[in-house]
Structures are given as structure tokens and as C-alpha cells.
Design brief:
Distance between the termini: 14 Å
Strand content: under 5%
Oligomer: single chain
Helix content: over 70%
Order of helices and strands: HHHHHHHHHHHHHHHHH
CATH topology: Growth Hormone, Chain: A
Number of strands: 0
CATH class: Mainly Alpha
Number of domains: 1
Largest sheet: none
Number of helices: 17
Structural class: mainly alpha
């Protein structure tokens, strides 16, 4: 990463650090572990999937309520990193606790998962906002996409170790139970996340800020109210957020519910873990490719590409029958999940006033999180009503269609020509 500054590298490395949580806790090992615990407790497959969806909805609702206020306060000098550290610490601690929850206590598993998710996504609000402090507008697509690429590559290392331990335990090749092997995966995640966050903690500092005022909380509420009054001034920004609200809903729901859905289809846990691992390998270069194509074709056009891919994913998911079908579906997701997230982040960063980056990334988060409430709830309710998870996945198509229509009215940000050397 010699073509990037120390700040850019440290910022991107946090994607490397926290992506272990994304794959092991959000997507792979924890959902399978939870589904097994719920099944052993006599809960049906459709109900346990619904309960997981409701839990995700609760966690995202909590964070969505906090993000705009905390983001507005964090725009004051010296506070952005403090809020980042606070949520990061909660996330790592709660992830560690998952390793010590008795496997038969599925409800306590969901409680700890809620806290870990709040910490994970809360830290991401301030991490995303730091992009304006570490790079220039012309380099944002590249840096953001490379961050996601590094995240996918880095997450495969703890994932491989975790899969190896689980598979060896399942085949009784090591003196560790399958339950304990999964719990060790949670502990590995927490250690990995904490260790590779150190460069972020040491080298990233808030460059753009608002000078502190007396009564910060009251002043922050006033600033937040003023932003709503000036909403016409930020028309393009809020129009993008509205589009983002719909299409990222589908993206997040598919990512967080994919293994639960695969389990409902009868796909073995070993096959699911292998599929998710290969998906990470596909996603890493594809995220970087999205960043490069964005420099040539613009970020907005590449977001369109990502949305179209996800529409195909939702339609294809409705007809899934075999493990091979799930493989194909996972590879399609892998081609675009990192790219659409990375370019959405950098696209939004170009629209926001730098000194108000936390406030506006708070809105970015609340739109994303409220969307994440709607998606899992829609999938969960539809699964329970119909008795088939596939109907819930198919219903997400409408969200992508609405998102792409609104995005068409958002102007492309005007930025300087891309600089090939670090600023």
C-alpha cells in the first residue's frame, strides 16, 4: 500500500479489522450457531429466522435513534475519536461475551448479539466519517473501495482459522466440541478486531471540526434543528439518502440473513461456511474493481450496476432449490456487495460539508439503519405468514427498484480530477 498515505492506510486497515465481525458474527458462524441453539430449544426454522430478524431490527433501531445526535456532538473538536473508541469497546466486549454464553441459552445469545451489533455499527458511523479527514475528494472512491477490498481479504484469515477449528471439531479430530469451536470463533473475532484497530487509534485524527461551545448537547440539538431548516440547501444530499434508504435495505438484509436462509433451505453448515469463504475471495477484488471503474464511469453509474445485480439476486433466490443454486447466488452477491457499499460511502462523503461530516454521516447511518429495520422485519413477517423464507427475499426487489428510480434524480458530485499520488 505504498501509494497511500499513513492516514489512508491506517483508516483502510480498520476495514481489515472489523470485517472479521461482518463475516463470522453477522453472516456466518453466529447465525448457524444461533439457529442450532434455537432448534435444540424446540423453535421452528421459520420462527428462529424471524427472531433473528427482529433482533437485528432492535439493534439497528437503537443505533438509528442515537446516531444523528451523537454525530452532531462528535463534530466538535476532539470528540469524533472518543465516540469511535466508545462504540468500538462495546462491540469488542460484547463479541467476547458471546464466547461464554451457554449454547442452550438462545435468548441470551441474541441479547449479547444486540450489544455487539450496536458497538460494531456505532463505531462504523464515526469510522466512515473519518474518510474526509484522511484523504481528498478525488481519491475517495479509490480509498473507500480499497478499504472494502482489504476488509474482504483480511476477514478470510480469521474465517479460515475458525472454519478449520469447527470442521476439525465436527469430525472429532481435535478434543474440542463443535459448540466450543464456534465459541472460539467468536473470541478470535474479538481479538482480531481489537488488534488491527490499533493503527486507527494511533494515527487517525480529526482534521475538520467545529470549535467547542458551552453546553455542547444543547448546541448540538440546535445545529441539528438548523440542518433540517436548511434542508433545501442540501437537496442533493438528502435525495441521495432517500435512494440509499431503499437500496441499502435490500443489501443489508441479504447479507445479514443469508446463512439463516441457507439453513432453511437445508444446506449444511459446512457447505455454508465454505460458500461464504469463497464469497469473500470473490468480493475482495470486485470491490477494488468497482473503485477503479468508478474513476472511469463515475461512482453513480457503478452504484446502478450494483443495484441491478442485487435485483437479479432477489429474483434468483426465489427459485433456489439446491446447494449449487446457493453457490451461484453467493457468487453474484460477492461481485457487488463491497462495491455498492464502498461507492455509496464515498459518494455521500463528497456531498457532505467536511466540518459537519459526523452529523451528516449520522443521517447516513440513520437512513441505513431504519432501512435495516424494515428489511429484516419484512423478511421475517413474510416468512412467518407464508412459511417460506424465499417469499421474503423476493419481496426485496421492490426496494431496489424504488432506490434506483430516486437515485436517477441525484446529481453526480463535482470533484477535482482524480490525483494519482497521495495528498
Amino acid at each position: 500500500m505504498k501509494h497511500y498515505t499513513k492516514g489512508e492506510n491506517s483508516w483502510m486497515l480498520y476495514d481489515w479489522a472489523n470485517s472479521a465481525y461482518s463475516i463470522i458474527i453477522t453472516t456466518a458462524v453466529f447465525p448457524i450457531f444461533y439457529k442450532a441453539a434455537a432448534t435444540n430449544a424446540g423453535i421452528s426454522a421459520a420462527d428462529s429466522t424471524a427472531y433473528l430478524g427482529y433482533t437485528i431490527a432492535i439493534a439497528t433501531f437503537i443505533l438509528a435513534m442515537l446516531s444523528p445526535i451523537l454525530g452532531t456532538i462528535a463534530d466538535y473538536q476532539g470528540l469524533k475519536k472518543k465516540f469511535f473508541i466508545f462504540f468500538f469497546a462495546i462491540g469488542v466486549l460484547a463479541t467476547t461475551l458471546l464466547a461464554f454464553v451457554p449454547s442452550e441459552n438462545w435468548l441470551l445469545l441474541l441479547v449479547c448479539y444486540t450489544f455487539s451489533a450496536v458497538g460494531f455499527w456505532g463505531a462504523n458511523v464515526f469510522y466512515d466519517a473519518f474518510i474526509v479527514d484522511v484523504t481528498t475528494e478525488g481519491r475517495m472512491n479509490r480509498v473507500s473501495a480499497r478499504g472494502y477490498g482489504l476488509g474482504y481479504i483480511g476477514s478470510t484469515i480469521p474465517f479460515i482459522v475458525s472454519i478449520a477449528i469447527i470442521i476439525l471439531a465436527q469430525n472429532e479430530m481435535i478434543r474440542v466440541s463443535a459448540t466450543r469451536a464456534s465459541q472460539l470463533a467468536f473470541l478470535i473475532t474479538a481479538i482480531w478486531w481489537g488488534l488491527f484497530t490499533i493503527p486507527m487509534l494511533k494515527n487517525i485524527h480529526q482534521r475538520y471540526y467545529i470549535e467547542r461551545e458551552p453546553k455542547l448537547v444543547i448546541s448540538s440539538f440546535r445545529r441539528l434543528g438548523q440542518t433540517f431548516k436548511d434542508i433545501r440547501k442540501y437537496r442533493a444530499l438528502f435525495l441521495f439518502l432517500l435512494a440509499y434508504f431503499f437500496y441499502i435495505d435490500g443489501v443489508g438484509t441479504i447479507i445479514s440473513m443469508s446463512t439463516a436462509y441457507g439453513t432453511d433451505l437445508g444446506i449444511s453448515s459446512t457447505s455454508l461456511l465454505l460458500i461464504l469463504f469463497v464469497t469473500q475471495l470473490v468480493a475482495a477484488p470486485c470491490a477494488i474493481i468497482y473503485g477503479k471503474f468508478a474513476e472511469k464511469f463515475t461512482g453513480k453509474k457503478m452504484i446502478y450496476v450494483g443495484i441491478f445485480v442485487y435485483i437479479i439476486v432477489c429474483i434468483y433466490a426465489f427459485f433456489l432449490k439446491t446447494t449449487l443454486d446457493f453457490w451461484i447466488l453467493a457468487m453474484l452477491v460477492g461481485t457487488s456487495q463491497g462495491g455498492i457499499q464502498a461507492l455509496s460511502r464515498s459518494y455521500f462523503a463528497k456531498l457532505v460539508p467536511k466540518e459537519k461530516s459526523n452529523e451528516f454521516f449520522g443521517f447516513y447511518n440513520i437512513f441505513g439503519k431504519f432501512a435495516a429495520i424494515m428489511g429484516p422485519l419484512l423478511l421475517g413477517v413474510t416468512a412467518q405468514i407464508t412459511g417460506h423464507s424465499s417469499y421474503g427475499v423476493f419481496s426485496l426487489v421492490i426496494l431496489f427498484i424504488i432506490g434506483i428510480i430516486i437515485l436517477a434524480f441525484v446529481p453526480e458530485p463535482k470533484v477535482d480530477e482524480v490525483v494519482n499520488k497521495p495528498a
